[in-house]
Amino acid sequence: MQGQHQEHRETRAFIAIDIPQEVKERLRELLASSGIESLRPVHEDNMHLTLLFIGNLDPALLEKARSIVSELRGKSFRVSLKGLGTFSRSHPRVVFARVGEGVEQLKALHSALHSEVKAIGVELEGREYTPHLTVSRLGHLPRNQLAQLTKFLDDKADLEIGSFLCSAIKLKSSIIGGERAVHGDLAVAELSP
What we know:
The protein is α+β, with helices and mostly antiparallel strands. It has one domain: Cyclic Phosphodiesterase, Chain: A (Alpha-Beta Complex), CATH 3.90.1140. 31% of the residues lie in helices and 35% in strands. The protein contains 5 helices and 9 strands. It has helices spanning 2-7, 21-32, 59-70, 103-119, 143-155, and strands at residues 11-18, 39-41, 48-57, 77-85, 94-99, 132-138, 160-166, 168-175, 182-190.
């Protein structure tokens, strides 16, 4: 009986690009140098560049999403990360690395994947896609730390963080619980050189 119950559980899914270890290490060092106590860096195992958040999928839709990603074709491309930012200077909730090179390719992939996933019957968010890499979440920031964060972000606005070749796109699962979410790979599209 338990096996049958498991079969019908929904899977929280998203499509993303993994980040190379050397870029993750550079980001970890950069955040550590900030001295801001309220920064809660994203665990290195969960650091990825999201192309499309899908949400909870039943087994049938999950299989269709796997097919979409597995059948994806395209050429690999360079992605560079340049500068740090936040979506709100007055009430920041996350710190992210900005995407420099590769923005247009990421937007095109997002658009194509959004259309294909929507076509299989999944309701998706309608907000504009802004390619970025979330590197830290923020707790409540006292006023002095907000000023410190603003200065830190201004100082790092044009910093060349790193670049890498995007050669694979993955459908990933996310299991929420414990201290952090646990992500797993469900399907992979290898991009041609």
